[in-house]
């Protein structure tokens, strides 16, 4: 009997990075593959609850927090304001650890599927001579001259350049590649130690994507195919996973009563990192819904709940949510504005996405 193909998936980051990989892992498992999902140790319980094989791939997020002396809120702000901080202070210090973790579980693997910043896993695939299929979770990781991302710490300059067309934009991006090349020196050094040839492409840009294939796990409405995308890139749509401890996510009774008491509400929620930098988002959103007079749900972290609910105690209702960053149940709350109508209120699209840091286009 032919053995099942063994596919190792390696991801890094928050729940927003984990969930698409879980959806992909579950789909591969349903189609007869043996799957190992490698991620930070904080996610072990969540992954194994879905019946998936988990393997640790460092860095563990708590170890990062302890080493840097920053809490999650401070860490999020630092990354948002200094995009290179993610690479220089989090990813690269654990590069050799991540490589060794993947080498330990991939001896019998048939292929790897890697997150765009899982550089240690990519080196392991190359060392073993395995196919490596890259995952792109947002359009900005391609740094297309035709659809470029706004640079967080150079917003006005990048907007000015982009308005002048793809030729100047390409030159601007090339300048950024030269400036950032030094951030990839740990990759160069590890390649040398591993007797791998020097990289032809920039390890943080086009070199982050495999020639074997790239799956872009987002809608083409978020980012259309571009002429300068990496070869063999397929935009296949979002990979959704919504569950906790192996069962579908559910709402508590109070929240369900609120939803059943009127027409469908507006729902405001942020990414699992951006929720720690929510001040402007919440303030502007609250002003909008008060003007509109509409029923609204806000999903926030504990700190924002305490701060924003205090001034509007008659409006707030507790809802259930999982905790992607503190490994425990969040206190999340819904704000009900003039909710006197009757009817049912399923929370479904349509939706509108607003760019925030590196999460969205």
TrEMBL record:
It comes from the Bacteria. Residues 340-361 are annotated as: Disordered. One of its GO terms (molecular function) is hexosyltransferase activity. GO terms for biological process: carbohydrate derivative biosynthetic process; carbohydrate metabolic process. Pfam families: Glyco_transf_28. Residues 7-76 form the Glycosyltransferase family 28 N-terminal domain. Keywords: Transferase. Coiled coil: none annotated. This is Glycosyltransferase family 1 protein. It comes from Oleiagrimonas citrea. The lineage of its organism: Bacteria, Pseudomonadati, Pseudomonadota, Gammaproteobacteria, Lysobacterales.
């Amino acid at each position: 009997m032919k053995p099942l193909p063994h596919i190792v998936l390696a991801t890094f980051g928050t729940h927003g990075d984990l969930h698409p990989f879980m959806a992909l892992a579950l789909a591969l498992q349903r189609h007869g593959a043996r799957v190992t999902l490698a991620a930070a140790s904080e996610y072990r319980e969540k992954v194994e609850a879905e019946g998936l094989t988990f393997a640790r791939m460092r860095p563990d997020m708590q170890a990062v927090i302890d080493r840097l002396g920053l809490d999650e809120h401070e860490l999020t702000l630092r990354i948002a304001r200094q995009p290179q901080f993610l690479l220089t202070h989090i990813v690269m210090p654990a590069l050799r650890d991540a490589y060794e973790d993947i080498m330990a579980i991939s001896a019998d693997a048939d292929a790897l599927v890697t997150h765009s910043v899982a550089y240690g896993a990519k080196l392991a695939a190359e060392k073993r001579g395995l196919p490596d299929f890259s995952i792109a979770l947002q359009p900005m990781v391609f740094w297309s001259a035709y659809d470029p991302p706004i640079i967080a710490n150079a917003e006005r300059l990048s907007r000015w350049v982009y308005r002048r067309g793809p030729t100047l934009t390409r030159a601007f991006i090339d300048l950024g590649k030269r400036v950032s090349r030094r951030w990839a020196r740990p990759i160069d050094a590890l390649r040398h130690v591993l007797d791998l040839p020097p990289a032809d492409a920039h390890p943080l840009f086009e070199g982050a994507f495999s020639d074997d294939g790239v799956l872009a796990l987002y809608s083409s409405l978020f980012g259309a195919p571009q002429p300068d995308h990496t070869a063999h890139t397929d935009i296949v749509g979002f990979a959704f996973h919504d569950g906790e401890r192996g069962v579908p996510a559910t709402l508590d009774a109070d929240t369900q009563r609120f939803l059943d008491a009127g027409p469908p509400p507006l729902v405001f929620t942020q990414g699992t990192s951006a929720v720690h930098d929510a001040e402007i988002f919440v303030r502007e959103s609250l002003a909008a819904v008060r003007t509109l007079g509409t029923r609204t749900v806000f999903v926030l972290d504990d700190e924002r709940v305490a701060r924003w609910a205090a001034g509007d105690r008659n409006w707030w209702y507790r809802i259930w949510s999982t905790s992607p960053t503190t490994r425990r149940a969040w206190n999340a709350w819904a704000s009900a504005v003039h909710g006197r109508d009757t009817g049912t209120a399923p929370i479904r699209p349509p939706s509108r996405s607003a760019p925030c840091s590196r999460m969205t286009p």
